[in-house]
Write a structure and sequence with these properties.
Organism: Psychroflexus planctonicus
Protein name: Glycosyl transferase family 1
Number of domains: 2
Number of helices: 16
Oligomer: single chain
GO molecular function: transferase activity
Structural class: alpha/beta
Distance between the termini: 12 Å
Helix content: 40-55%
Number of strands: 13
Keywords: Transferase
Strand content: 15-25%
């Protein structure tokens, strides 16, 4: 069986979408003749943890853990609350930042390049040089963000010229949206451009999760690029009844820039103008919701219809998706977001509930929703169209026929995607 070393930062008990991709790949790789070995940090700073995911780690997986030094571990001594907020990634949009947060962002952005995990690079290269030799490993995979992990792959590639190195980009690098919040100096921005270019040129194979990222990277390298999206686990049907309410459910973080005001206005119009709608309507959020978004919802008179469920263990969140009448998928209205395909869309597909997606024009999600016939997409200015679609959903709900006949979703199962990955190995 072929051995492959996977270098990752997010691993159980980390929660959130970053951990799911490689947790699931490692589950199915042995089915295709590949033995995965994980290299992960021993003492990481995870903004969200989900202990239930520890039970999903395959028993056949060897996991190597090595200590990591992160700025968060240092700054937490000075300001624990500020560090927790920054670690959670609340740097996008219009959240008000304290002077300490602004200082921490400046230091994080300009003195830890490409990211706060860069101090793990040199110790990891030193340790893994010997490990690769002792264990006859000929293929490695690095997955980012954090993109500093690609520097580990690059360093090992320089030491072992025959080593096959696959660089997996779960998100873009230079064009990632939060870079604009990190207060980069011009020289820092240039350094990111140079580092990204060197990784794209030195890796043997590039893997990306979206069609837009492939288009972007294709203009920067001649190396082969494969799109392998995130996906869903095929699970047995839950013995769960649909919500008796006309429930719209959003799963995942909803930061301030993901604030579709026209959607809230459409809901408000229907609540005000339709007593039946008012009686049945509910709006559920599973995960962290920005106060900016909550304020916008309250300004539209919807406070009494909102349910904040907070972060739920993964399996519980999946059950909530299966109970929903309509699933909300919301992305920020920014050009650089059109190549971001949230991992939850694939679990939404598995739930087989109608998806109402709102995001930037030419969003990659449009392609998936269109080819699977799993729901409807709208841009941020589609007030009237949103209102009409919600009314259609509601009439179907009242008649007990609010369903979706999705097509071609098997291609997004984790096992199918792992088979695709195995062919690159």
């Amino acid at each position: 069986m072929k051995k492959v070393l996977i270098i990752a930062y997010y691993w159980p008990p980390a929660g959130g979408p970053g951990v799911q991709r490689w947790l699931k790949f490692t589950k199915y790789l042995p089915d295709f003749g590949v033995k995965p070995i994980l290299y992960v940090p021993k003492n990481p700073t995870y903004p969200i943890t989900d202990e239930s995911l520890n039970r999903e780690v395959p028993k056949h997986i060897k996991v190597i853990k090595r200590s990591i030094l992160e700025p968060h571990q240092i700054t937490s001594v000075l300001s624990k609350n500020e560090t927790k907020t920054m670690s959670a990634g609340i740097i996008a949009g219009q959240e008000k930042q304290s002077p300490m947060q602004k200082l921490m962002l400046y230091v994080r952005g300009n003195y830890f390049i490409p990211d706060a995990r860069v101090l793990w690079v040199k110790p990891s290269i030193k340790y893994l040089e010997k490990y690769l030799t002792d264990n006859s490993i000929e293929t490695i995979i690095t997955t980012g963000p954090p993109h500093s992990l690609h520097l580990i792959g690059q360093g090992l590639k320089k030491q072992f010229t025959n080593l096959k190195w696959i660089a997996d980009f779960r998100d873009p690098w230079v064009n990632i949206d939060y870079h604009s919040q990190l207060k980069f100096k011009e020289s820092t921005q240039q350094k990111h451009i140079e580092l990204e270019k060197s990784i794209l040129q030195d890796a043997d194979q590039i893997v990306v999760t979206s069609f837009e990222t492939k288009r972007e990277f294709s203009s920067k390298t001649a190396k082969p690029i494969e799109v392998i999206t995130n996906g869903f686990d095929e699970v047995e049907a839950f013995d769960i009844d649909l919500s008796e309410a006309f429930s719209f459910v959003h799963v995942g973080s909803l930061l301030s820039e993901r604030n579709p005001t026209e959607l809230w206005k459409a809901f408000a119009d229907l609540v005000e103008g339709d007593e039946h709608f008012k009686q049945f309507f509910e709006l559920h959020f599973v995960g962290k919701v920005s106060q900016v978004v909550l304020n916008s919802i309250e300004e539209n008179g919807l406070k009494d219809y909102v349910y904040l469920d907070g972060y739920l263990p993964h399996l519980e969140a999946v059950k909530v998706q299966h109970q929903a009448q309509v699933l909300l998928l919301i992305e920020a209205n920014r050009t650089e977001k059109k190549g971001i395909i949230p991992g939850k869309i694939f679990e939404y597909l598995m739930a087989k509930r109608p998806i109402l997606a709102i995001g930037p024009e030419q969003w990659d999600v449009q392609k998936i929703i269109s080819e699977t016939q799993a729901g409807n997409y709208f841009d941020y200015d589609s007030h009237n169209q949103l209102k009409k679609q919600i009314q259609i959903y509601f009439q179907d709900f009242l008649q007990g026929k609010l369903n979706v006949n999705s097509q071609h979703i098997a291609q997004y199962s984790r096992k199918s995607l792992t088979q695709k990955l195995s062919k690159l190995l």
